[in-house]
Design brief:
alpha/beta, 321 residues, single chain, 10-stranded mixed β-sheet
């Protein structure tokens, strides 16, 4: 009886502290690190959600772009921040990719960071510059086979989903191309529009305006079936290449952050995703909302990490390729 009373007393004593941690947070502006340059889908989604979070939390949520090293620089900054919920990071596919691709990461993805909430997903389109003369996947593959090792494709950076999509295309189609990594989608897209690179897998929300204006040619959507957002564009699968690729994003915080803070943050993000301004922007931008539980996000990260590990090993991809 004495032991039971002691345990009950300890549990009761912990409740006010837990409630206090939740009530006092956030005590100052919250920093949301985005490990990409401004202008890409992850940055756009982060800023939309940050605006709503500022309103919901009663403190400014400030977006801090820290690109570089395939997102490792930004993720490392978040992994070394205080575990008080005042530093968050938006991660994308590269967070899972890097766990296999990058040797000697300066952080431990499972130990140092804690999943909070998924936010959105954008489908990929394989696009080319009009000067290429390509209109279909077959056109691209014919050119790649006629000029082995000559054609170049851009990506958001080493280890990003766009990089792996290009590598999967090479492996599945048996072609050899040059990978040109950039520090984010915006600079890669700029060079694609300028004709400095031949093609890229990119997020449909950012490329669709250029496709519709005739500045880029959509060779195919990297989706299992025709996209709701681009039903007139055939999939790569329809053209004989079973390749799916997309960009997703979600929020992590430092491991050790109090459960009450993470729970409040998770609820606030899901509320933000349901805000009329965010719903409208997502719909107009072709971004699918991925609201769900923190546990679902954690399971999703494990699944994505395993999927990309298989792709990397099968295609023999290295951080230098």
């Amino acid at each position: 009886m004495h032991r039971r009373a002691l345990l009950q007393g300890l549990a009761a004593a912990g409740l006010p502290a837990l409630a206090c941690a939740q009530a006092d947070w956030p005590a100052r502006p919250v920093r949301l690190i985005v490990p990409f340059p401004p202008g890409g889908t992850t940055d756009v989604v982060s800023r939309l959600v940050a605006t709503e979070l500022s309103r919901l939390l009663g403190q400014p949520v400030l977006v801090d772009n820290k690109p570089g090293a395939g997102t490792v620089i930004g993720v490392d900054a978040a992994a070394k921040a205080p575990a008080d919920g005042h530093t968050l990071i938006t991660v994308a596919n590269s967070f899972c990719v890097n766990q296999t691709l990058v040797k000697n990461l300066p952080y431990d993805a499972q130990r140092d960071l804690r999943p909070v909430a998924l936010m959105g997903m954008s489908e990929h389109v394989l696009a080319a510059h009009p000067a290429s003369g390509w209109h279909t996947l077959a056109d691209l593959l014919a050119a790649a086979r006629a000029q082995p090792g000559k054609l170049s494709y851009a990506s958001f950076g080493k280890g990003t989903s766009a990089h792996l999509a290009g590598a999967m295309l090479e492996a599945q189609a048996g072609v050899d191309m040059i990978h040109v990594p950039y520090k984010g989608q915006a600079p890669a897209l700029s060079d694609l529009l300028g004709g400095q690179v031949s093609m890229m897998f990119g997020n449909w929300p950012e490329l669709r305006g250029h496709v519709r204006a005739g500045k880029l040619v959509a060779l195919g959507m990297a989706t299992a079936r025709r996209s709701t957002y681009a039903p007139d564009i055939p999939t790569l699968a329809e053209q004989g290449l079973a390749l799916e690729s997309n960009s997703w994003n979600g929020v992590l915080t430092r491991s050790g952050t109090p459960d009450a803070v993470v729970a409040r943050l998770h609820d606030a993000i899901n509320q933000a995703l349901g805000a009329p301004a965010v719903v409208q922007a997502f719909g107009e931008g072709g971004i699918a909302s991925l609201a769900g539980s923190a546990a679902q996000f954690a399971a999703f990260l494990q699944s994505e990490t395993a999927k990309y590990a298989q792709v990397i090993r099968k295609a023999n991809i290295t951080a230098e390729s």
